[in-house]
């Protein structure tokens, strides 16, 4: 073997030995500077705000803070949240979350919350502290808190809002010159994803010109399947020849969850519409005593003669001429004020 060949063989042997050494000891070629662990550091990677418990006057805002960690363990980490009124600049609420030691690299979510009034907008300031020293602050704006629905009023059941199909439909069941028996049909829709719990439907028949309640009724709206509409009917009896507002409302555990209004025009000379100013018409309060006309006059005399209490035959016990006159004057002043 000549010298050149021997040198090539020796070089190849050295290369093979070096490769085996690198495989056997992976860190043999690492830069010693890279083996020194970097100082620990935590930063805010993102903040998410979501509604929590919503009460009548206040609401909880839940705050999820994503902390990014790098390097060695960071000890004694805390996160502070402040809710500041967007218009007033006043501090509304402040909370602090004790995170403790942060290690392991990557990101972790730290949950916290603040309580604010259910009105206006707020600026949420989130600060990260390490051993009591602030290392970073981020601000988030929250608006429309008033639109959050309290838990006690959160219901997907409400009156149907249709372009053609009426929400409130009134039909005459019986009628004479004194009274009319009406059937009121109301459409209720479940806009949620689950079957609804039973709710109460309350109905008021309000005489248009005087706002006197002529009759009222209540029914139970049984469970409605998701996305379905149910028609609920109620029967009322009112004095004839008057116009009425039909005030309907839905209640859950004595909490008002929705309301709507319709009309019943029983006076052919005057017509009204919902939320419309009405004209003055003749009004007789006696027709509305006892829940509607047609009620028995009680113990009035058959001869129609005046009695000691000022009533005459055919009048309904309760209001006398003085009360009737007062009601007429009140109705006239109300109509004049509306004009």
Describe the structure.
- Residues 292-320 have low confidence and may be disordered.
- The termini are far apart.
- It is built from 2 helices and 15 strands.
- It is mostly beta strands and 339 residues long.
- A 4-stranded antiparallel beta sheet has the order 4-3-6-7, with no helix packed on it.
- The longest helix has 22 residues, at 3-24.
Tally the beta strands: 15
Oligomer, anyone?
single chain
β-strand amount: over 45%
Strand arrangement within the widest β-sheet reads 4-3-6-7
- Low-confidence stretches at least 5 residues in length (pLDDT < 50)? 292-320
Distance between the termini: 126 Å
Shape: elongated
Report the order of strands and helices: HEEEEEEEEEEEEEEEH
Give average pLDDT, whole number. 81
Tally of alpha and pi helices: 2
Alpha-beta classification = mainly beta
For the largest beta-sheet, the strand count, sense and barrel status come to: 4 strands, antiparallel
As a percent range, the share of helical residues equals 10-25%
Round the Cα radius of gyration to an integer and report it: 39 Å
């Amino acid at each position: 073997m000549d010298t050149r060949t021997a040198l090539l063989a020796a070089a190849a042997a050295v290369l093979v030995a070096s490769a085996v050494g690198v495989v056997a000891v992976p860190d043999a070629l690492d830069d010693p500077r890279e083996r020194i662990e970097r100082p620990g550091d935590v930063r805010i990677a993102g903040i998410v705000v979501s509604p929590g418990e919503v009460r009548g006057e206040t609401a909880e805002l839940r705050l999820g803070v994503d902390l990014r960690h790098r390097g060695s363990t960071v000890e004694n980490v805390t996160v502070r949240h402040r809710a500041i009124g967007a218009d007033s600049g006043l501090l509304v609420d402040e909370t602090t979350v004790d995170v403790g030691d942060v290690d392991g690299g990557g990101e972790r979510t730290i949950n916290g919350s603040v309580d604010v009034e259910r009105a206006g907008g707020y600026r949420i300031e989130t600060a990260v502290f390490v051993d009591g020293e602030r290392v970073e602050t981020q601000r988030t704006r929250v608006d429309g808190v008033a639109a959050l629905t309290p838990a006690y009023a959160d219901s997907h059941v409400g009156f149907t809002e249709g372009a053609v199909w009426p929400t409130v439909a009134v039909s005459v069941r019986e009628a004479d010159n004194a009274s009319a028996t009406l059937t009121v049909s109301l459409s209720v829709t479940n806009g949620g994803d689950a079957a609804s719990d039973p709710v109460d439907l309350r109905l008021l028949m309000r005489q248009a010109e005087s706002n006197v309640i002529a009759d009222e009724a209540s029914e139970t709206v049984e469970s409605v399947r998701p996305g379905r509409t149910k028609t609920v009917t109620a029967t009322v009896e009112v004095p004839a020849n008057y116009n009425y507002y039909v005030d309907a409302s839905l209640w859950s555990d004595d909490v008002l969850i929705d309301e709507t209004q319709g009309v019943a025009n029983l006076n052919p000379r005057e017509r009204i519409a919902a939320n419309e100013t009405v004209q003055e018409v003749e009004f007789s309060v006696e027709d509305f005593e006892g829940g509607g006309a047609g009620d028995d006059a009680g113990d009035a005399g058959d001869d129609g003669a005046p009695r000691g209490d000022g009533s005459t035959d055919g009048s309904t016990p309760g209001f006398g001429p003085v009360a009737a006159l007062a009601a007429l004057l009140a109705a006239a002043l109300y109509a004049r004020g509306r004009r």
